[in-house]
Q: What sequence folds into this?
């Protein structure tokens, strides 16, 4: 974990938007990577905590985040979750009608409180009859649908309670291309809904996350810069709200663009073998550690060799992991000087989702080391068998449950 890279990512993004629209908030997406030190560093920089579960919400509180700087999203919130977050004056974006019922119940039980709430909106972002959603989905399953009238019905239900105020609209979509045009469209639609439904208490427009960051070309041929995103999105906000005495804040919820290039994974070569015409390099890591979605993209890699051959010969080989899964390929068709047993391979750009998706499967979780201005420190210890099989969770032997 490179703390300096994390700080630089934050500063670049913040300046790109803040210089174009003054009321700008970064809400770091905890689900992307919730290493405690990382989240604490983000909070020190000024980022809000964007969480999607009570587990993540409680974690943010545990590491010292001001509850007023927590953005509570996600499709599954209980009555207790909502009561707790409202009491703490956190930002909450509702995803479904059952959550609206919970908010109304809270408002009725706290008649002297002003209950501020946001709504996640579902609308069509198709362009030229082509879906922009990740994995080719035709529609998003999240949020409250505008097209079928549900958004209006939700607004009417909330506004029927005198001490509830709708103060925000949220529009997060997982897109394939992370295109500037998609984010400009999302921003425009949310601004349009503010005026269409006369939301006079609006305090923020939250366009979600998913924008590209400093991504190498081997992973994405074209990746817009923070400035290019900022120019397009902030132009919409300025056009729509420049005449407001108190324009709403613009909230962005980055994940991968904050942490993707902050982490590297180092794995040791433990074996080399040939099967037919294919060469396999076995390492003591797994695809789970670097690409938990099992995509076939080639991450940038460096070889840390014990010895360099005077006459280097480039070969084609696969880098494979320690699991018993046939698909445990860290890299397909690597082209380089063949490493030797005892060499190390460094995989770059592994900061997004790897930590949170990495399952307790076959081997323990590895340690994580941090670097900050040449100082090296421990971020996470290597997992032990006692932690892998946590005796507070696992039962060794039969323990009768009395009904």
A:
């Amino acid at each position: 974990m490179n703390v300096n890279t994390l700080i630089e990512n934050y500063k670049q993004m913040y300046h790109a938007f803040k210089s174009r629209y003054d009321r700008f908030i970064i809400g770091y997406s905890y689900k992307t990577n919730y290493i405690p030190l990382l989240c604490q560093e983000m909070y020190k920089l000024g980022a809000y905590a964007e969480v999607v579960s009570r587990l993540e919400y409680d974690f943010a509180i545990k590491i010292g985040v001001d509850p007023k700087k927590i953005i509570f999203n996600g499709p599954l919130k209980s009555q207790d979750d909502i009561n707790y977050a409202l009491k703490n004056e956190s930002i909450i974006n509702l995803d479904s009608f059952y959550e609206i019922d919970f908010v109304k119940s809270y408002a009725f039980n706290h008649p002297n409180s002003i209950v501020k709430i946001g709504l996640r909106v579902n609308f069509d972002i198709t362009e030229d009859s082509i879906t922009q959603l990740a994995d080719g989905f035709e529609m998003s399953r999240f949020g409250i649908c505008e097209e079928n009238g549900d958004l209006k019905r939700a607004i009417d239900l909330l506004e029927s309670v005198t001490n509830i105020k709708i103060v925000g609209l949220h529009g997060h979509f997982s897109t394939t291309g992370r295109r500037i045009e998609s984010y400009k469209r999302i921003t425009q639609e949310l601004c349009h809904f503010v005026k269409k439904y006369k939301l006079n208490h609006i305090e923020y427009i939250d366009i979600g996350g998913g924008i590209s960051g400093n991504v190498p070309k081997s992973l994405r041929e074209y990746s817009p810069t923070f400035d290019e995103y900022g120019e397009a999105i902030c132009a919409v906000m300025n056009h729509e709200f420049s005449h407001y005495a108190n324009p709403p804040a613009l909230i962005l919820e980055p994940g991968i663009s904050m942490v993707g290039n902050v982490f590297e994974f180092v794995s040791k070569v433990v074996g080399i073998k040939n099967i037919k015409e294919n060469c396999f390099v076995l390492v003591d890591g797994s695809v789970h550690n670097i690409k938990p979605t099992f995509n076939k993209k080639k991450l940038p890699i460096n070889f840390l060799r014990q010895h360099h051959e005077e006459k280097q010969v480039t070969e084609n080989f696969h880098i494979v992991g320690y699991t018993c899964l046939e698909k445990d390929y860290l890299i397909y068709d690597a082209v380089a000087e063949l490493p030797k047993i005892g060499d190390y391979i460094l995989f770059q750009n592994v900061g997004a989702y790897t930590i949170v998706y990495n399952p307790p499967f076959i081997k323990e979780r590895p340690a994580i080391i941090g670097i900050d201005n040449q100082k090296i420190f421990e971020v996470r210890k290597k997992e032990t068998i006692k932690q892998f099989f946590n005796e507070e969770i696992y039962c060794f032997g039969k323990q009768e449950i009395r009904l």
